């Protein structure tokens, strides 16, 4: 039997952690938890293309080093990894627009990740936690209680090039002790994507009204961002205790109720004086209309520059109106992960943030 360190030894033999994408949505929460809740960490290196700001007002008792740069720049990355024991890789380009720059997505998400991996090997970094996304396995078909060993990677993921680039990044690992975490759709403080985008659509619509879309039985599973960050901490610890889990994927969820996505969004719309439409739009009719608009725009774009608002993005509608929910048993058993924040606490924190938008 392998002689692995004990759980107690993690707090004695503390390590230095590099967080890429530290200024981003997940990165901010991860830095907060490394500072306030993780006794196994002695120092933190914040790496991002944007200067780090403590937007969450967390404690700063542990040593922090700030490096601004691109994950594709091997010189800057090598400098950032000096003295680092573990990398938690959150940085990514996340565009799901129908006119997203596919080359840029693969350059950042795939080439950037590979550069980080190469630099980590050269710098003798022992542990690597890679933040992927559940979107890599979300295709045109619904998923009910999906698990790591039951969900296949679809040929046509709902979120297109973004999801493909994140899966291609996963395939780069194998030469270093790495854990891959796949959180579901995230919400919470600093969210620039999910809830914030829907609030933006509502505010740009007549009467501050977000159209509800009806696809018979639709359920979605979202995760509070603080719990996804906590899962990264647990993955780091388990990797130190048991390097044998290297190369495995782990689905990350929390106890936020699985529900109709429009029912989930309603309290946050109410918080900013917006509302849902009383009469839902039929899903398939809406999708056909949006796809026709997209075809027309694609045909005329070479001759006339045009950008459509995100409310006309069929990818976003398909994703929101397809049932995806998952089983986190593997993360519970192998990573000893349990959500740090309750659904009520997550909602209270989120309401404060979204109420200021």
What is the compact description of this entry?
This protein is an alpha/beta fold and 357 residues long. The chain is built from twelve helices and 15 strands. It is 39% helix and 17% strand.
Please tell me about this protein's structure:
- The structure is a single chain.
- The protein has 357 residues and is α/β, with parallel strands linked by helices.
- It has a domain at 13-188 and 221-256 and 325-344: NAD(P)-binding Rossmann-like Domain (Rossmann fold), CATH 3.40.50.720.
- Helix content is 39%, strand content 17%.
- It is built from twelve helices and 15 strands.
- It has helices at residues 7-12, 25-36, 74-80, 102-122, 160-170, 194-203, 225-241, 261-271, 283-300, 314-320, 329-334, 343-354; strands at residues 15-20, 41-48, 63-68, 86-89, 127-131, 143-146, 178-183, 185-187, 209-210, 213-214, 222-224, 249-252, 275-276, 281-282, 324-326.
- The chain has a seven-stranded parallel β-sheet with strand order 3-2-1-4-5-7-12, sandwiched between helices. Strands 6-15 form a two-stranded parallel ribbon. Strands 8-11 form a two-stranded parallel sheet.
- Helix 2 links the parallel strand 1 (15-20) and strand 2 (41-48).
- Helix 2 packs across helix 7 and helix 4 runs parallel beside helix 5 (160-170).
- It is globular.
- The termini are far apart.
- The mean pLDDT is 93.
Offer a few descriptive terms.
15 strands; 12 helices; two-stranded parallel sheet; globular; single chain; Rossmann fold; alpha/beta; 357 residues
Question: What's the arrangement of secondary structure elements?
Answer:
Elements: H1 7-12, E1 15-20, H2 25-36, E2 41-48, E3 63-68, H3 74-80, E4 86-89, H4 102-122, E5 127-131, E6 143-146, H5 160-170, E7 178-183, E8 185-187, H6 194-203, E9 209-210, E10 213-214, E11 222-224, H7 225-241, E12 249-252, H8 261-271, E13 275-276, E14 281-282, H9 283-300, H10 314-320, E15 324-326, H11 329-334, H12 343-354
Parallel strand pairs: 1-2, 1-4, 2-3, 4-5, 5-7, 6-15, 7-12, 8-11, 9-13, 10-14
